[in-house]
């Protein structure tokens, strides 16, 4: 995964060429258009679900449920340009439905670090600081996971979405029901909280 800085991804990029037309067509019942949308976003939905849920079976179930609901509900989507954040909001809700059913009410954003590369972790823990070779050590990654898990829920959710998807701050806000400035603040607090945790435990 590429390393992101907090000054990146702040402006929402335009939807992929033809996406709005695909959404409009799919909303009118054109299944082929919906299939093309699935091709665009399937990988991102899968990555996010896997990192939230921590196992492939549950992630597969969450993505399948997401696509079923999206297909059933797309006719009611009033803003085709918001399709991406709308879709990821469904995905997030399905993931947390599964967490509740399995008894894990804390959320599993801590699994975020399981597949993050050293560059992403260096950014998340910047000003700690932690050299990449130290971050690669299993015991260090375990402390980072514990630090993320110790964050307040909203901060943990923002950090998870920031690093597990390519959503912008504004889109993350749309998924979580928060405004963009609040998301940015939560992300900065998450980074500061994690740095403080690491200074005490490393």
Overview of this protein structure:
The structure is a single chain. The chain is mainly α and 202 residues long. It has one domain (19-201): Rna Polymerase Sigma Factor, Chain: A (Orthogonal Bundle), CATH 1.10.1740. 67% of the residues lie in helices and 0% in strands. Helix 4 crosses helix 9 and helix 8 packs across helix 10. The chain is elongated and about 55 Å long.
Mean pLDDT across residues: 79
Percent range of helical residues:
55-70%
Strand content: under 5%
Instruction: Calculate the terminal CA-CA distance, rounded to whole Å.
Output: 24 Å
CATH architecture group name: Orthogonal Bundle
Largest sheet entry? none
Q: Quaternary status of these chains?
A: single chain
Q: Regions with pLDDT < 50 over 5+ consecutive residues?
A: 1-13, 105-110
Radius of gyration equals: 17 Å
Q: What is the chain-wise order of helices and strands? A: HHHHHHHHHH
* Overall morphology: elongated
């Amino acid at each position: 995964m590429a390393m992101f800085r907090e000054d990146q991804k702040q402006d929402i990029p335009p939807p992929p060429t033809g996406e709005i037309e695909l959404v409009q067509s799919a909303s009118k019942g054109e299944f082929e258009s919906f299939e093309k949308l699935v091709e665009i976003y399937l990988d991102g939905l899968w990555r996010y679900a896997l990192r939230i849920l921590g196992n492939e079976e549950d992630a597969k179930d969450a993505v399948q449920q997401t696509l079923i609901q999206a297909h059933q509900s797309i006719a009611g989507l009033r803003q085709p340009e918001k399709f991406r954040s709308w879709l990821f909001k469904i995905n997030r809700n399905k993931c947390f439905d599964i967490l509740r059913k399995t008894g894990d009410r804390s959320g599993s954003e801590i699994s975020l670090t399981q597949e993050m590369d050293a560059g992403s972790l260096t950014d998340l823990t910047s000003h700690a600081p932690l050299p990449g070779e130290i971050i690669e050590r299993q015991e260090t990654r375990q402390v980072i996971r514990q630090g993320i898990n110790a964050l307040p829920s909203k901060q943990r959710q923002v950090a998870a979405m920031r690093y597990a998807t390519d959503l912008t701050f504004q889109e993350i806000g749309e998924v979580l029901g928060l405004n963009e400035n609040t998301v940015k603040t939560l992300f900065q607090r998450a980074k500061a909280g994690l740095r403080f945790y690491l200074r005490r435990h490393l």
